[in-house]
Write a structure and sequence with these properties.
The complex is a heterodimer of chains A (794) and B (49). Chain A is an alpha/beta fold and 794 residues long. Chain A has 35 helices and 14 strands. Chain A has an 8-stranded parallel β-sheet, with helices on one face. In chain A, strands 10-9-8-11-12-13 form a 6-stranded parallel β-sheet, sandwiched between helices. The radius of gyration of chain B is 10 Å and the shape is globular. The chains are: A alpha/beta (794), B mainly alpha (49).
Chain lengths: 794, 49
């Protein structure tokens, strides 16, 4: 088959950097200048074709023909030369299969191990290759195969191979234990925990290399992290990572994921500086612009964003995305953080790249739960930065993949109780002066305690003396549970102990949420409500809540949950809010008496260049208009002023409104003539704040749920004339209202009247409707019916 | 206030100890822009050079 030079070993030909030096036991094979005869070339092509068309079947006949009757070192030559030839001719499946055969036939030869190790880094193994390895393991029970190739084995999800080894062999090796844990995690997290606990005792009583110890601790730490046992992660990993002698022995690329697990736990517990000290070990700017450094920079950016240092975070996210443009998560973060600073440089390219990246699976990494974490991290930015049903479909695909990565759950399904009262548990990290708390405070006070027991699991690290927290705590009473230091397991155990009937996740995929908390299904019915304005795509979340306007025939398809469609605006109002006495306009705005105030108080990240351009055109056309805008950073302001100047607008016509508490903010809204909504992410709570003050909002109704919220509020008070369908009609509507004072006064009056007429802020009415929905889905479940779309009529 | 100053000091120290002077400069600029006291942090930066 080949002619062989006596001078070059295979590892020299194939690239020594990837090849483990051959041991002294190796057969002395020297190859070079491989010349394949026509027949061998044809046979290798045949093998490749067979493997591509039927990846499960080993093309035995073609392989036998290729190897002929060779024995011993001649056979080894043929296999290695065939491998080399196949590799050079882009027949990688054949190369991998031949290298697997050579490894399992000549296990004493280190070249064979090195060659297989090299090829499996290039291409994922087909079932045919795994069957060769499986057969070898079954026969020899050689633990080294699993130890040496643990990384590709993990990537391929073939950890089951560990079952072919005797348990006593597995229990004595920390690496094999990690594979055993991966298998156990699919069946029972409890079992996996027990294996890890036992493994840790073994690890502590024996001496292993720091690399082995680090790998075991990474597996254990990640397991605890996925259980939400953040304190335990710190207890486990900190001593090892702080031990300079040990950590220095671990290669850099293995240190990073270990440090990332610890820093995630620290961040979760609010110790962002600790997280930074753990993760940041060397200069960021000296790192090469290489894909392999992107994840590290992303982790550092995440910590800066938790430290509220947006400029620095935005820069780092953008840098990480430049290093790896296939990483959708980093791209969305770069887009989102830059949007907070009104930094729209390279925005279209960034958006296009994000759109392309999210269409593909998240890249696999060392972490088993990487996909789930990536999804949780980017879904909110993706949902708010785009009005795209297609993107929502891609998010659903990523959710399905992430869900398949989650550990096994074997909790028995809850059994219907004979009870008069339905037990409801709300879960959130935002029980303080935050949009969610503003929305639910009235609801918490208005729930009918004769029919419902209300619980609130507060897992955010919030100020105890916050006025909204106090108000909600008072409303919920002894069932208000401060659980920020509890693991997911502990929270779920408590939900089970209390026999909660319906859990309501108020966070979903938003910052500081615990989107996988309810994965073990601690309650029979679980709802995604208010916080995350899109589907979570998780089968353990039964329902999503919207209304007849936010949910459309088109966007309903983008929900994995069954839909609860309320007949009224889906957001709970707080009728106990009062309009404070309005200060004189001059106390807020130093402007002319007859100025028309265009107010735009949505969070600044929702502002886009397209919308801002429309506002500037309006300012340019109508000299009496001033733009009253949410405050932003100095750099954000300077970018907005610069664009205004370029459009010929005097900077003093753009006024930034400082942050005020809720009551004062509502008070100052009285000085706004028209509320300008943003798009694609429209106003949610800010929009209803404006309506509470009776201010007309001009909005664009998009396609996704998140892009229809403000329009829905207007629809439910019969003010659809304020809803635009496009950028052009948005401009025209605003232009007309600014031009026609009478028309503006009429619509302002109508908004004020209709808010009352259609009871938009009637908490009691809302609560009764909401309770009817909860009772309805609960009764369906009690009757043994599976969750289905639930429409309520008034 | 004291707590914030201490935390900012710790942050800058982490950055300087890990050879991230450019990040430290960016952070100080950002803190300054949002009105936080940065005199001590700038001194740290100077003493590092």
């Amino acid at each position: 088959m080949s002619s062989i030079s006596p001078h070059l070993a295979l590892n020299q030909i194939m690239g020594p950097s990837h090849i483990v030096p051959a041991s002294s036991r190796r057969l002395n094979i020297r190859l070079s200048l491989i010349i394949m005869d026509k027949r061998s070339k044809r046979l290798i092509s045949e093998i490749e074709k067979a493997l591509v068309s039927r990846p499960t079947k080993i093309p035995i006949k073609s392989i036998e023909k290729l190897l002929g009757k060779t024995q011993g070192s001649d056979r080894l030559h043929e296999l290695l030369v065939g491998t080399k030839f196949a590799l050079e001719n882009n027949q990688a499946q054949t190369a991998l299969l031949l290298s697997a055969i050579s490894l399992t036939t000549f296990p004493e030869n280190r070249d064979c191990w090195a060659t297989f190790g090299y090829v499996i880094q290039i291409i994922a193994a087909t079932p045919a290759v795994w069957s060769v390895l499986e057969k070898y393991l079954g026969k020899t029970q050689d633990p080294n195969l699993l130890i040496e190739f643990r990384h590709p084995i993990r990537l391929a999800g073939k950890q089951d191979l560990v079952k072919l080894l005797p348990i006593e062999t597995v229990e004595l090796n920390p690496i094999l234990i990690t594979l055993q844990v991966n298998v156990a995690q699919r069946e029972s997290m409890e079992l996996a925990t027990k294996i890890l606990e036992k493994g840790k005792i073994m690890l502590d009583s024996n001496s292993f290399s720091a690399t082995t110890e680090g790998e075991f601790l990474y597996c254990y730490g990640e397991h605890l992290l996925s259980l939400g046992r953040h304190t335990d992660v710190i207890r486990l990993l900190k001593p090892f990572i702080s031990d300079q002698k040990k950590i220095d022995q671990i290669p850099e690329d293995q240190q990073k994921p270990l440090r990332a697990v610890l820093s995630s736990a620290q961040s979760r517990l609010g110790d962002h500086l600790g997280a930074l000290a753990t993760s940041l070990t060397h200069s960021v700017s000296k790192l090469p612009m290489d894909e392999s450094n992107a994840a590290f920079i992303y982790n550092i950016a995440l910590i800066f964003s938790n430290l509220q240092l947006r400029e620095t975070a935005a820069e780092l996210y953008y840098l990480a995305f430049q290093m790896d443009k296939n990483d959708a998560t980093t791209g969305f973060h770069a887009l989102y953080q830059r949007s907070h600073l009104c930094n729209w440089e390279d925005r279209d390219n960034l958006k296009n790249a994000c759109n392309s990246a999210i269409a593909h699976s998240f890249k696999q990494g060392t972490s088993r739960l990487r996909g789930a974490r990536m999804l949780a991290s980017c879904a909110f930015s993706a949902t708010t930065m785009f009005d795209s049903l297609k993107l929502q479909s891609h998010l659903l695909e990523r959710s399905a993949e992430a869900h398949s990565e989650l550990p096994a759950q074997n909790q028995p399904p809850p059994i219907p109780r004979k009870t008069e009262k339905i037990k409801i548990a709300y879960l959130s990290a935002d029980i303080y002066s935050h949009a969610t708390a503003f929305l639910i405070a009235g609801l918490m006070e208005s729930h009918d305690r004769e029919k419902f027991d209300i619980y609130l699991f507060s897992y955010g690290i919030n100020q105890a003396d916050d006025s909204f927290r106090k108000r909600i705590r008072n409303a919920v009473g002894e069932n208000f549970l401060e659980v920020s230091q509890w693991s997911d397991e502990q929270i779920c155990a408590s939900i089970r102990d209390e026999k909660i009937d319906i859990t309501i996740d108020l966070k979903g995929f938003t910052q500081n949420g615990r989107p996988f908390l309810l994965y073990s299904r601690p309650a029979p019915l679980q709802i995604n409500y208010l916080g995350y304005p899109a589907s979570m795509g998780m089968p353990y979340i039964d329902y999503f809540v919207g209304d007849t306007y936010t949910l459309t025939n088109n966007n309903r398809k983008q929900f994995s949950e069954r839909l609860i469609t309320l007949p009224i605006f889906y957001q709970p109002p707080d009728s106990s809010r009062t309009l404070t006495e309005s200060f004189d306009r001059s106390s807020h705005l130093d402007i002319a008496e007859d100025a028309i105030v265009l107010g735009a108080f949505n969070s600044i990240y929702k502002l886009t260049p397209k919308i801002y351009d429309i506002w500037l055109k309006l300012l340019s056309k109508h000299p009496k208009c001033i733009l009253w805008l949410t405050d932003t950073s100095i750099s954000g302001k300077s970018r907005l002023f610069k664009l205004a100047t370029m459009a010929g607008i005097e900077p003093n016509r753009i006024i930034f409104a400082p942050f005020l508490d809720q009551e004062e903010h509502i008070g100052r809204l009285a000085h706004v003539d028209i509320f300008l909504d943003t798009y694609p992410c429209v106003g949610h709570t800010t929009a209803t704040d404006a309506l509470f003050q009776g201010i007309p909002i001009v909005t664009i109704a998009g396609e996704t749920f998140a892009s229809r919220v403000a329009a829905s509020a207007l629809h439910h008070i019969a003010c659809s004339e304020l809803i635009a369908e496009s950028y052009d009609s948005y401009y025209q509507l605003l232009d007309e209202f600014i031009n026609d004072k009478e028309k503006l006064e009429m619509i302002s009056r109508k908004v004020k009247e209709n808010v009352k007429k259609y009871q938009l802020f009637d908490t009691q009415r809302y609560t009764r409707v909401w309770e009817e929905a909860l009772t309805g889905i609960f009764n369906q479940w009690k009757e043994g019916l599976s969750a289905s779309d639930f429409f309520l009529k008034i | 206030m004291t707590e914030t100053i201490d935390k900012n000091k710790e942050l800058i120290e982490i950055l300087l100890n890990t050879d991230n002077r450019d990040l430290a400069e960016k952070v100080i600029k950002e803190l300054k822009e949002r009105g936080e006291k940065t005199g001590l942090l700038e001194k740290l930066l100077q003493s590092d050079s």
